[in-house]
Design a protein that fits this description.
Layout: H1 14-17, H2 21-37, E1 42-44, H3 47-50, H4 55-62, E2 73-75, E3 79-82, H5 85-88, H6 92-110, H7 118-122, E4 125-129, E5 135-139, H8 140-145, H9 149-154, H10 170-173, E6 184-186, E7 192-193, H11 194-204, H12 208-226, H13 240-257, H14 277-288
Antiparallel strand pairs: 1-3, 2-3, 4-5, 6-7
Length: 293
């Protein structure tokens, strides 16, 4: 796509100010025509018909409205030439060279890249390191073939863990993180999709930062609990979304009934977490009165 450049002070130039509105529109149409067809500022006479140009507007553009200054259009044999067009806009050669460079860049980007040496391919697993320097293992087949999360669970694969409360960092982990994990807010045995995380934050309500922190702490506690016995041996059942919906209902129901639950009361951002909703409410009231809880 080509672009027309107009100096930001053009509308204060007397040659533009003195133009009738219809002539100004024709001048702009002429610039667009030149850049669209890469004519280097040449406007063919036949093109004026398509622009619905009026004779009086063409005469205004070809006239020297400011003493000592040239017109905006110059009459030539083929039609008209825009004054100083090449001073503000790229020539046909420049535009075509840029397009050719873009095509080459895209072609190189589509070419398959070598992921590893033959010795690396012989290994069933490959090791990468997080920015913190913590090693973690990722199944090489999931890197190359993009296997689903369900396939990884069935193979008892090690799912890469993100830093608490952060998505995977593609810049740091690169292609080693399977594509499906890039959309997760937290990852573990049962990854929490960012869209589902945002939905929980909206359900909690209140201040965004407080709700976000509460959901994040609760979700991390759920991941930790399901990564350890006895829940580690328990079947997840259903999809990841269904699993997290069920855990959220347990959390919500636990807040209403005072039952044991994994995670803080809804909206609680205290450290440590409040034991229940009543304790959280009392602590908030104490904070408002500026009385130590």
């Amino acid at each position: 796509m080509a672009w027309v450049r107009i100096d930001d002070s053009a509308m204060t130039n007397l040659k533009i100010v003195l133009l009738p509105d219809s002539a100004l529109r024709l001048w702009l149409k002429g610039l667009c025509y030149c850049q669209m067809h890469l004519t280097d500022g040449l406007i063919l006479s036949a093109a004026l018909v398509e622009m619905q140009a009026k004779k009086k507007d063409v005469e205004s553009l070809c006239a020297s409205l400011v003493p000592g200054k040239g017109p905006l259009w110059h009459r030539v044999e083929e039609g008209y030439r825009v004054h100083d067009y090449d001073a503000y806009n790229d020539s046909k050669a420049v535009v075509e060279a840029r397009k050719a460079a873009d095509r080459d860049r895209k072609k190189r980007g589509r070419q398959p890249q070598a992921i590893g040496s033959e010795s690396d391919m012989d290994s069933e697993r490959t090791s990468i390191r997080t920015p913190a320097g913590l090693p973690m293992e990722v199944p090489l087949d999931s890197v190359l073939l993009g296997t689903s999360a369900e396939d990884q669970r069935s193979k008892n694969a090690t799912v890469p863990r993100s830093f608490p409360g952060r998505r995977h960092n593609p810049g740091a982990l690169g292609a080693a993180v399977p594509r499906e994990h890039l959309k997760h807010a937290l990852c573990g045995r049962i990854c929490l999709h960012q869209a589902k995380f945002d939905q929980f934050v909206r359900k909690v309500g209140g201040r965004d930062d407080v709700a976000d922190s509460a959901v994040r702490q609760w979700a991390q506690a759920v991941l930790d609990a399901w990564d350890r016995p006895p829940l580690l041996e328990q079947s997840i059942g259903g999809s990841d979304f269904e699993f997290w919906d069920a855990r959220y209902e347990e959390w919500k129901g636990g807040a209403a009934k005072g039952a044991d639950r994994v995670g803080p009361p809804r909206g609680c951002n205290h450290k440590p977490w409040c034991a229940d909703d009543a304790a959280h409410t009392a602590r908030r009231m104490a904070e408002r009165r500026q009385v130590p809880a």
